[in-house]
## 1
Amino acid sequence: MSKRRVVYEGKAKILYEGPEPGTLIQYFKDDTTAFDAQKRAVLDGKGVLNNRISEFMMTRLAGVGIPTHFIRRLNMREQLIKKVEIIPLEVVVRNVAAGSLAKRLGIEEGQVLPRPIVEFYYKDDALHDPLVTEEHIAAFGWAGPQEYDDLISLALRVNDFMSGLFAAVGIRLIDFKLEFGRYFEGDAEIPRILLADEISPDSCRLWDFESGEKLDKDRFRRDLGGVTEAYAEVARRLGIIKESGETDNVVSINSGK
Ligand SMILES: Nc1ncnc2c1ncn2[C@@H]1O[C@H](COP(=O)(O)OP(=O)(O)OP(=O)(O)O)[C@@H](O)[C@H]1O
Ligand SMILES: [Mg+2]
């Protein structure tokens, strides 16, 4: 599809060199993995939906003052982004117990947490992205003290905004993962922290408010089926794709642009 130079190929996306220095093109693949990539599948149209959903979220977040890497969507699978130096931490915000937190602390899935909890995981596939504390982050210099505070406050602001956005369309934001990076503007010495990577049903847990139905990657992890259909439902509720029955056909969302 592209003659551009591949900068990085990950499990779900490919980064290409961008048209200008300091930019990259983020290409969303249909590939899906879980459990340290032991489980894999290609889900037809997933990349198209994630490109659109992430565009939507990043744009809305920018609108409330969250700095993001997103510049603009280029086509059905690609978006132009600012190139950042990724902070090697996955920042997870949890509102309701699920997944590893439920398992680790013996809390029943679905229990509302006393307050949103922010967790940090060190980005290292070989180590299975271990949970780390502020001590580890400071000692190993993965983020400076100011950066650490910024990550927490940005993550909580994203949580407040996204919780409301999803609630308005009947979806509970259970938890989600963010990545941030350092953006060196011009020859500024102190980089700005930008929200990077993606926000999509691959990186969030989203439950229907009424039925509790899962509308996220857990459908894949737990073999519930209807993965792409659930992602399309999220896109439809957010008003990203049309209401009609044609939404099962992800190709329909390419029409227009
Ligand atoms: N603005 C950005 N600048 C540079 N790198 C970015 C930016 N946004 C996201 N990335 C990185 O691009 C990659 C996206 O690919 P993908 O999500 O498929 O990776 P992955 O398989 O999850 O692996 P990783 O462990 O590296 O995250 C990730 O490594 C992510 O950290
Ligand atoms: Mg990733």
Note: The first helix runs from residue 46 to 63.
## 2
Amino acid sequence: MSQYRTSIDPDRLSPDSRLECSICWWVYDPQDGDEAGNIPRGTPFTALSDDWRCPQCDALRHQFLVIADDR
Ligand SMILES: [Zn+2]
């Protein structure tokens, strides 16, 4: 059993999935990583540590929503 709820379903996340902060709409793009958080380019969202926060508003990881790429 998982200890906490998450809106992110790992099965739906691919290594190049982009995710959007549901608070401030900052977008995590694996191609860019997160300079402020010392995340190198090419890091999938699923590889971020559990204490990683939105660099803009400090939102927790589970407050990010997957951006659907099926346009
Ligand atoms: Zn945010």
Note: The chain has one domain: 1-71.
